[in-house]
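=== RUN LOG ===
request id: a7f3
mode: sequence -> structure
chains: 1
length: 274
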Amino acid sequence: MTGPGPYLVALDIDGTLLDSGMDVPLVTARAVAAARAAGHHVVLATGRSLTGALPVAKSLGLDDGWVVVSNGAVTARLAPDAPGEYVLHEQHTFDVGPVVRLALDRIPGVRIAIEVVGWGYLVTREFDPAEVNGEQRVVRRVDELWAAPGTRAILAGPDVTRLVEPLRDLGVTATPDAQSWIDVTAPGLSKATALDTVRGLLRVDPAHTVAIGDGWNDREMLAWAAHGVAMGHAPEPVKALAKRVTGTIHEHGAATVLHALVEGTASLHLPAPA
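=== RESULT ===
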């Protein structure tokens, strides 16, 4: 990984930078700081909402630059002097009504959350705070969920992933996470689509893109980046889309990649996927 000009480094959060919560391990935080000091653009690219991503950005010392959240549905620029310390750049919304009606028809007990950017979620039943970030308001009537277009709907419950194909037939993007969770966003979105917009704004050469992730929602991002790196604990189909594989979260694999970038190590000196 060598050549002139800065790189755009897209970092997933959960399972890549940290296990849970908001605090990134010191070794990883220092590696992020070193990459930024070397002039590279570090962009958080996460399935978390903006409310959940901002504390992580702060813990990393990211007080400027960009964040891609809600699996590419929302892009914001970090701005310490702005209200909330961010400025929204793009919000891709869709009509959540058909999604909610389909979900309740197929799985009447499904839990539903509709994202309200910068605040939290409207929910049919309360979620565990570890599952979603920000405030929650339980709606009294289900039609409150589709009173306005939304950036993301979350569907949660046993075997909810059987809804993936029916949802895609509606034209929306349905991204499963295990068997009990689906994120639904507007058509054609992913972390990669939002990151490519940021790349253009930063005028970064496509060959100077790095992405590190571990989850199903990282697949498009890893394929998009010139240097897509899967974490060592990622599922095999995710690793197969990456160009390289680094250590696990407990081995601070993301920090390994960042140090290789700063040192200008060709091909990261990481093994290619099997």
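=== NOTES ===
The domain at 8-91+189-269 is CATH 3.40.50.1000 (Rossmann fold).
Residues 23 and 59 are 6 Å apart (CA to CA).
=== END ===
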